[in-house]
Fold these 2 entries.
Entry 1:
Amino acid sequence: SIVMKALDIKYRDVDGAKYPELQISKNPEADRIPLGKYGQICLNFIKEEYPDRYAELRMSGDLMPLMHEVNEEAYRQVKDLTEKLMKKEQFDKSDTMARTRIYNTCQAEAESIVLNEFVYQPR
């Protein structure tokens, strides 16, 4: 006969419902912090395009910390690249609508570059 050892699982109470506190990564904080836009995009990319690598990262506990790193770095790169692109543009600083339009265009271009050259990369 097989003897089952009781699992020592902790639960947290959310609105009267009990949820198990399961740790997916080596860093418990990485599991609690919501993943940002670029981290989610990278996570979905790896999950769909590189399922073996996704499973390996998940089992090793490195998945979520890595996705948080990608998220933070991508946000930083988009911000930096947007600022560089804005410096190249010529516009009337007092025209708020023109500045906003150009800023949005630069940010979209920067995001496209960062997604293709950084986020959509195998890890």
Entry 2:
Amino acid sequence: GSPQIWNAAERAPQWVQLELEAPATVESIELVVAQYPSGPSVHELWIQQVGDEERRVEVFDGVTSDGQVLRWMPATPIPDIVRIRVITTSLIDLEPAWREILVYGG
């Protein structure tokens, strides 16, 4: 709900990473886009579980706009996640930015 956003301050490719305080089970992740004007973009979602290599779990490829929610929900909750990374590989002539990155689970 904050008016603050995270902005890469450089054009794509750029990334933002979340280190969780403790291993967690993740049921879904929502990325709230901060982008004006609307346009094509490609964002990759990566996760890392305890003791494993980082792995890509989703690619969001399409037209995005300010306030849009990109949602990833695995078929079953994924346990022991310690790191989440969002990599913007392509974006119209803009700097990648996010209003919120929300991680849901237990």
